[in-house]
UniProtKB/TrEMBL annotation:
Belongs to the cytidine and deoxycytidylate deaminase family. Gene3D superfamilies: Cytidine Deaminase, domain 2. The active site is at E61. One of its GO terms (molecular function) is identical protein binding. It is an enzyme of class 3 (hydrolase). Zn(2+) binds at C59, C94, C97. This enzyme scavenges exogenous and endogenous cytidine and 2'-deoxycytidine for UMP synthesis. The lineage of its organism: Bacteria, Pseudomonadati, Pseudomonadota, Gammaproteobacteria, Oceanospirillales. This is Cytidine deaminase. GO terms for cellular component: cytosol. Its cofactor is Zn(2+).
Amino acid sequence: MNEIPHDTLMAMKAAAKQAAANAYCIYSDFPVGAALLTKAGQIVPGCNVENISFGLTNCAERTAIFSAVSQGLKKEDLAGLLIYMPGNKLYSPCGACRQVMAEFLSESAPIYAACDKEETTLWQMSELLPASFNF
Ligand code: THU
């Protein structure tokens, strides 16, 4: 797995935190931010966007990925992802997001969770969705 250098990781955390500040989360009051890193060093942010029809809510991870795809970025351009959730607990990405992440991040891509503590959790993409569906 290619771990992300500390300075870049801190820039991703700042971008994810900033995105979380834009979250539309009037139902859960739980703002989430994500920061997708490209191999060229670009950071693509995303936040959760909720809906009164709860199932239509889009998580931060998927917002970041869909935004990257909309910019023309491809799976081979993407290096890793960081999610930021507020508080002192480190959370992990939901199942729906794991499936979408597996579509656009390689099995060896590093996925980080961050919160308001300094520590992060690191997984390899394949650990988050082992034996994923593939043709
Ligand atoms: N949420 C995310 O954005 N990412 C996740 O991986 C888990 C949950 C959002 C969805 C909803 O807006 C709020 O967090 C509470 O579940």
